[in-house]
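Protein modeling request. Please complete all fields; requests missing the sequence field cannot be processed.
Requester role: graduate student
Desired output: 3D structure, token encoding
Chains: 1
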Amino acid sequence: MNKDMHIKLLLWSILSITSIFILCFTLIIPVSNNYINYNYELKSLLINKKNNKNELKILNDEINKQKNDLNLNKIKNSFNIDKLKTYCEQFFNNIDIKQIKTNKDYDIYQLNMNTKVNSPKMFYNFIDKLNSVDNIIKIHLPIIMESNKETIKIKFNILIYKT
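Delivered output (163 residues):
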């Protein structure tokens, strides 16, 4: 009986160890393989994301360089007071231009605008089209808008930088 018990115990041990190995190979190892595959895909996606960020940064740098080059070219352009005054008179009346600061590197001109318009759309169109002017222009705040019954009185200053 003692020998028979040992054989039963040995058989049950072998059967349980075999079943544990079978469970390991059918459940745990495929799950770990999936984990490894997912981890590899995640690393690949992170690398792609980093590469895309670098490419986007390079594109943004190129766009900023183009904008800066355009602004540098604008500051080198000659400033024609009559041309700018004619341009502004397309939108407004009562324009006063004066030179406010002279430096060894650049001059600053100021346009004082006092005008009356029927709608603010003309003012916004003027602001939109300022980018097409050949010089660097800054609209100096505050912009004062006062409404009457029929018109809007607009008062603001523009600074023009010239080398």
